[in-house]
User: Which sequence fits this backbone?
């Protein structure tokens, strides 16, 4: 039965008139192409603004205020710079532990993880595609475990009693007589954090670099050897890296972000915020401590702004190194 | 030419010069994967083996006891574990679907449309690649509350839909689609929606698969939204449940359960990545920033 199921709706005369006389001409005037473009863009722009741009702006604003969540934020004393002055002059924990810890952690895991990723990617590109898949998967696996599971793994391995695997190996080898409390004593936490972060640093930046190396035209190498390149070192610095600068930069940005994002690892390992004797305290944990434990949001916001500035600074360096100058 | 033969990138066959790379890479990859294997084997250990001293690396009498306990365990407030798992599955599915849709739409517009703010938008997005969400957790919390999303199921989803890395990758990939293809479709009367779903979408599948993986890895493992935005225990996620589980159940018995929970969390990650690996590598070759 091919009867028409949808019949045109009969609108009241007045409404039909309104549509014909006003809406239709107005609709015709709209640039469809433009409207469509902005329709495509609008969800992302809205979400991006709401959850990335505005939070950054709000953080900047709150950093100049005193805000305890219950009362409305008010501009603090000393023309609003109070929080910053406090951070830089009065916050002993920040200056003695958090800032040095963060710099040490970021400087080792950022460039370290990055160099490691490149080295691994480069070595992987030298072997056959079949085995490469498996090795790449093994190297990538730690980075997809997620903070919680990483915490479980390493807390089990570095468990402070003698049933902890690392302790039992050390006891077995006679290196130690009593089990070491790796995660709670504060002496080893930072080293373990750095180790674990490096272990899990071969993530998307690593994949990007691997793809970049594999994509380099083989003739480039042939030409280079004809032109007198002698060894692998020269090959890496004159051919490989320059030919994959875009991927190197992407990898660098991902390494920086990863290094600062993985800040929760110390708390995940030690199981408490603050970490024992502040040994694994990073800015991210310090922000959590002030923001969600002490509810000093203004102060926490000022710390966030400092963190964002540090990240920006690091990224600028990366762009300087690998960015293409026009 | 002898020296050149040994330096081949992406070699087709085995050559003895590759031996040194295998000698380094194979032990290293085993070392990388060992901790994971250890915890996986923990998950199958019966209680007696978890207490064993000295601890054994591999399980001897594998049992599903830990998994059974995990599924029976309820949190302090009496919410069963399966509820958290259910929440996580719904949240992850919705987030991945919406993220793909939004990144595809935006990536297409940024790559193929002509409008004034195009360059500016893309460079803003590129700056946002460095965005570290944890740094602005507090203002984000304020925005989420302001939008009335706090303690709402969608607080798990909406804040995480804008994904600068994803948009970046998809846009770079769409740049490879020839303009003529889209022009031809337009002449045939296709509108933007048709072009997206029938032409661009299928062509950039690898990039979309990559976005799906990244978004999955993030949202499936994320505890932030449950910890900060959500009050009701029944609306929280599996990752969050696992985080509380591992910090509240100490000792070897807890280790068994958390290892089992960890395995439940990790398996989907692994499977999805292995299935889509070639797509990811395809996308990554276009991932460069200039």
Assistant:
């Amino acid at each position: 039965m091919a009867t028409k199921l949808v019949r045109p709706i009969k609108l009241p005369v007045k409404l039909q008139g309104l549509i014909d006389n006003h809406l239709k001409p107005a609709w015709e005037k709209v640039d469809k192409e433009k409207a469509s473009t902005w329709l495509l863009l609008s969800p992302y722009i809205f979400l991006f603004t709401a959850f990335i741009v505005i939070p950054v702006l709000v953080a900047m604003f709150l950093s100049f205020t005193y805000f305890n969540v219950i009362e409305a934020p008010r501009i603090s004393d000393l023309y609003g710079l109070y929080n910053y002055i406090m951070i830089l002059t009065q916050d002993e924990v920040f200056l003695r532990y958090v800032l040095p810890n963060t710099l040490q952690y970021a400087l080792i895991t950022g460039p370290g993880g990055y160099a490691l990723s490149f080295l691994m990617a480069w070595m992987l590109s030298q072997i056959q595609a079949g085995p490469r898949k498996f090795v790449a998967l093994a190297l990538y696996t730690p980075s997809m475990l997620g903070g919680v599971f990483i915490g479980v793994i390493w807390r089990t391995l570095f468990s402070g009693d003698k049933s902890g695997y690392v302790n039992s190996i050390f006891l077995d080898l006679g290196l130690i007589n009593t089990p070491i409390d790796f995660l709670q004593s504060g002496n080893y936490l930072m080293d373990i954090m750095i180790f674990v972060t490096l272990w899990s640093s071969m993530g998307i930046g690593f994949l990007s670099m691997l793809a970049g190396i594999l994509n380099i035209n083989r003739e480039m190498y042939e030409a280079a050897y004809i032109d007198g390149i002698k060894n692998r070192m020269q090959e890496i610095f004159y051919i490989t890296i320059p030919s994959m600068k875009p991927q190197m930069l992407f990898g660098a940005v991902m390494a920086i972000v990863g290094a600062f994002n993985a800040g929760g690892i110390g708390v995940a390992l030690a199981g408490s915020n603050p970490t024992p004797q502040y040994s694994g305290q990073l800015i991210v944990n310090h922000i959590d401590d002030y923001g969600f434990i002490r509810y000093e949001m203004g102060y926490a916001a000022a710390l966030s702004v400092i963190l964002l500035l540090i990240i920006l600074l690091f990224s600028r360096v990366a762009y300087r190194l690998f960015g293409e100058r026009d | 030419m002898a020296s050149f033969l040994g330096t081949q990138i992406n070699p087709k066959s085995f050559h003895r010069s590759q031996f040194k790379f295998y000698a380094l890479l194979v032990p290293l990859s085993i070392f990388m994967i060992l901790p994971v294997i250890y915890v996986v084997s923990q998950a199958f250990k019966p209680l007696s083996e978890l207490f064993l001293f000295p601890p054994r690396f591999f399980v001897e009498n594998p049992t599903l006891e830990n998994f059974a306990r995990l599924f029976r365990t309820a949190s302090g407030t009496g919410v069963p574990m399966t509820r958290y798992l259910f929440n996580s599955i719904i949240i992850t599915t919705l987030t991945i679907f919406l993220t793909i849709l939004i990144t595809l739409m935006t990536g297409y517009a940024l790559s193929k449309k002509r409008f004034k703010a195009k360059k500016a938008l893309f460079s803003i997005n590129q700056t946002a690649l460095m965005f570290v969400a944890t740094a602005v957790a507090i203002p984000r919390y304020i925005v989420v509350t302001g939008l009335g999303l706090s303690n709402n199921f969608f607080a798990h989803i909406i804040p995480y839909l804008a994904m600068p890395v994803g948009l970046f990758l998809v846009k770079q990939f769409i740049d490879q689609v020839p303009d003529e293809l889209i022009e031809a479709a337009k002449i045939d009367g296709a509108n933007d929606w048709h072009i997206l779903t029938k032409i661009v979408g299928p062509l950039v599948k690898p990039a979309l698969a990559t976005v799906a993986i990244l978004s999955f890895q993030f949202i499936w493992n994320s505890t932030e939204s449950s910890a900060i935005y959500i009050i009701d225990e029944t609306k929280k996620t599996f990752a969050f449940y696992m985080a509380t589980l591992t910090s509240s159940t100490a000792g070897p018995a807890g280790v068994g359960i958390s290892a089992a929970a960890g395995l439940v969390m990790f398996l989907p990650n692994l499977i999805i990545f292995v299935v889509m690996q070639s797509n990811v590598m395809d996308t990554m070759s276009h991932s460069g920033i200039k």
User: Anything to note?
Assistant: The first helix of chain B runs from residue 2 to 6. Chain B has a mean pLDDT of 84.
